[in-house]
Design a protein that fits this description.
By secondary structure, the protein is an alpha+beta fold. The protein contains 13 helices and 18 strands. It has two domains: 3-117; 232-456, Aminoglycoside 3'-phosphotransferase, Chain: A, domain 2 (Alpha-Beta Complex), CATH 3.90.1200.10. It has a seven-stranded antiparallel beta sheet with strand order 6-7-12-13-10-9-8, with helices on one face. Strands 1, 2, 3, 4, 5 and 11 form a six-stranded antiparallel beta sheet that branches. A three-stranded antiparallel beta sheet has the order 14-17-18. α4 packs across α6 (249-269), α6 (249-269) runs parallel beside α11 (392-410) and α10 runs antiparallel to α11.
């Protein structure tokens, strides 16, 4: 398709005609990060016709749009950028009624109906077809590593998440990143590096699309990976074990080994660094700042601040000349829900995007591997607290088994670094307190129990 055909016509007039519709629709989407603040402006970054809009047949319009909100941005360039895939029809069939965005009153698409394109199987299938035929398309570029079969029926995954996902024929899953940042997304970058390193614990990317025609500042827009059909979610497996009164230590130990294998492969594939005293002090100060902000937001934290701060300061109090901590690329948001047990009983690790609310540069920064370990230890606590009566011994056995499995595969026991492990687990629990207070107040006792435990500790995690 030519540049003229792939780039949307009259882009200057296009966005103003869509703004009234987007103003109402966008803040209601589960992946919109600026909820609770008014939208004050839109700026068009790019517009691409993935399927022509000048026919009576359905069209597919790809937009990158910056959204300005007071208190979140100071300039248009700092505004959050979102990826929109808009279907365009003259009339919307009843089966797509729930995907309706609105009717365009004027501009290049006057009189036509706009809707969420990924809800339309015909348009979702077109997106896979674009990935099957790599190359540039206007400001976008499509790439693949292997041949992809044609004719795979799409279905959307209806789950609460910060992105949108489509499954094609139970063979592949496409993650569409809604909030877009300059640079490679870790959910593409790290699985590609792991695939090159021969690590089979992570599904290897099959195809992806991005902006910038492959330049270093290109933004990752979507990643296609194998769909692990029949696999079981680690979080649900843990809950099932709790509900049946079953031990979960064998699974936790195997999961620890899988985590260590991923960390080892990442350290082999990508650069590692040693954290000197300045870097360690920066780490401690960042954790302390987050604690101060959290205590202001959730006053229930106030009585525990001295003990929690001591957990962070213990990291900076290591004797001069002691062994430096190694930092490398890590998962960044590891918990039971980011793991799958496949049909053959092996564990896989998924979703390397990191915490989506954090800047991309921070998510791509090398960090000590115990950060991931701490995230998984917190996840075992969450699982144990999901059932009444609470079974703290179940969680503790899982935590020990996980660390044992990690040590078996890596040769390094995370419990041998108690100060660093406690600091990262404390930092995670502080984050959880703020999240639960804002979004799920009924769950607040879960991280608060960890806060009390961690604030009272001195030398052991």
């Amino acid at each position: 398709m030519s540049e003229t055909a792939s780039t949307a016509r009259a882009p200057v007039a296009l966005l103003p005609s869509l703004v009234p519709l987007l103003h109402e629709w966008l803040p209601r989407q589960r992946w919109f990060a600026g909820k609770g603040r008014p939208v004050t402006g839109f700026a068009l970054v790019s517009a691409t016709e993935l399927l022509p809009l000048d026919t009576t047949a359905p069209g597919l319009l790809h937009l990158l749009v910056r959204v300005q909100q007071p208190g979140l941005t100071t300039t248009a360039a700092q505004a959050d950028c979102y990826q929109l895939l808009l279907g365009v029809r003259n009339n919307l069939p009843p089966q797509l009624a729930s995907a309706l965005i609105g009717h365009v009153p004027d501009g290049p698409l006057a009189g036509r109906t706009i809707y969420e394109g990924l809800s339309d199987p015909r348009l979702a299938a077109l997106l896979l077809e674009r990935l099957r035929t790599p190359g540039p398309m206007g400001p976008l570029r499509f790439s693949r590593t292997v041949a992809i079969p044609e004719g795979l029926a799409p279905r959307a995954l209806d789950t609460e998440q910060s992105n949108s996902s489509l499954v094609y024929g139970d063979s592949y899953i496409l993650k569409v990143f809604r909030r877009v940042y300059p640079g490679a997304n870790p959910d593409l970058e790290l699985p590609l590096a792991l695939a090159r390193a021969g690590c089979t614990r992570v599904p290897a990317p099959v195809a992806w699309y991005e902006t910038g025609n492959g330049r270093p500042e290109a933004s990752t827009l979507g990643v296609l990976q194998p769909y692990l059909r029949g696999s079981e979610d680690g979080w649900q497996l843990a809950l099932d074990a709790l509900g049946a009164g079953r031990d979960f230590t064998a699974e936790a130990r195997a999961l620890g080994r899988a985590t260590a294998e991923v960390h080892t492969a990442l350290a082999d594939a990508l650069p590692t660094v040693a954290l000197g005293r300045p870097q360690t002090e920066n780490l401690v100060h960042a954790m302390s700042r987050r604690l101060d902000a959290a205590a202001q937001a959730v006053p229930a934290l106030m009585p525990y601040v001295p003990g929690l701060r001591a957990a962070f300061e213990a990291v900076g109090d290591q004797p001069s000349g002691s062994r430096l901590w190694r930092a490398q690329r890590v998962h960044g948001d590891l918990h039971l829900g980011q793991t799958l047990r496949t049909q053959d009983g092996d564990w896989s690790v998924i979703d390397f995007e990191g915490e989506p609310a954090k800047p991309l540069a921070e998510r791509r920064r090398p960090q000590p591997p115990v950060r991931d370990v701490a995230g998984m230890l917190r996840s075992f606590d969450y699982a144990a607290r999901s059932y009444r009566p609470w079974n703290p011994d179940w969680a503790e056995r899982c935590r020990d088994a996980y660390c044992t499995g990690y040590a078996e595969a890596s040769g390094t026991d995370p419990r041998a670094e108690p100060a660093l492990l406690r600091a990262y687990e404390t930092d995670k629990a502080v984050y959880e307190v703020v999240y639960e207070a804002r979004h799920r107040p009924d769950w607040l006792p879960v991280p608060m129990a960890a806060i009390r435990r961690l604030a009272a500790q001195t030398t052991t995690p």
